[in-house]
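Page 42, continued from yesterday. The earlier attempt failed because a stray header line got pasted into the input along with the sequence. Redoing it now with the clean sequence only.
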Amino acid sequence: MNLQATIDFDLRRFFRWWSKELSYWIPAPVLALLSDRSGYLIFAETPAGMTATFRRALDPDQPPVFSKTLNRDNPDAYRELLALQPELQKADTLLRLEASQGLTKTIYLPLAAQENLAQVVGFELDRYTPFKADAVYFANLPLGKTDSGQLRVQLVLTPRPVLDRLLEQLQSWGVQPSGVDYAEALPAEGITADYNLLPERFQPRGNRLSQSLHWLLNGLFALLLLAATIWPVWREGEAVERLKASIKTLEKETRLIEGQQQEIEAVRSKTQRLIDLKTQTPSLIEVLNELSKLLKDDTWLTHFQYTDKHLQVQGQSPAASALIGILEASPYFANVAFVSPLTQDKNTGRERFQISMDVAAVAETEPSEAADTAEETDTDANPADDNGSGTANE
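This time it went through. Structure tokens are written below.
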């Protein structure tokens, strides 16, 4: 890849191409309003006379509107044609040379010749053709660079007498062509070539003000068309930016809500842990109530310590050794054991004890089980009443 290579850019050819491509997107009625031309009238010499072909557009795929052969000896031939076709007055007039009236050839030149291509071709013309530069009208069409670094050029020429005669014929009818091309040197993509064999002295002098106004109007229309194309896209872009801003705001609110939900979830988890802890551990009142039920009236406590599901009690009892079995039988207590040996109190005669045990939660009785228990109690009570009543009756 050669980074030092120069980039050739022909601004005039670019705008010609750009205008042509843009015209494909414009409807034909609108394009006709913008253009000051009704079409293209192409003159070509044939054995029968001078043929005039009218086309709406420079497109070889579209058939011509009409084609008529004019008599060379009739000085009013063109005026009669205008009388039949008034729209030809606004047509762009071209002269097309037939195959026998010109010559085309592809030549190769050094790249340095590109800056003064016309002068170089004119100087070297007799090397590539049997004509000298002052005997022909010629044009050159650059075709690009070759792989070997040479400039490829298409040379088109016609003898001066041939073109002068044809131009004089047209001038006798009052026709002033705006361009001359060669039928054997037309580009593949269109009818008109990117060159002009018309001598400078025959080129029409247009109204600069009219042409400037025409191009100004076309430029304004192109700007309006461009604005009409870009404006909706710009509006959509603004709408997208607004949506992005809204999404950012919603994302901030969403993150705030998620943070609050996490805090709520943390509080709920702590609360649930406290509830589970309370459910798994009996309350102090329940433990005291259970001890009051299990211990007889001749047994009392002098010390009570309840910490983290573990209970340690001290006291006196006539039969302290029996307390281990009594406490183990309770669903509230497990791992019941003496912490120290039993001793005798001389004043009371009772045994001093120190017992430790684990405290466990007791599942609450289901309503159905309580109901069944109540029914069993009632059943046990009824037979006694029945028996008593029977005895009384007897």
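Notes: The chain has a mean pLDDT of 79.
Reminder to self: strip header lines before submitting.
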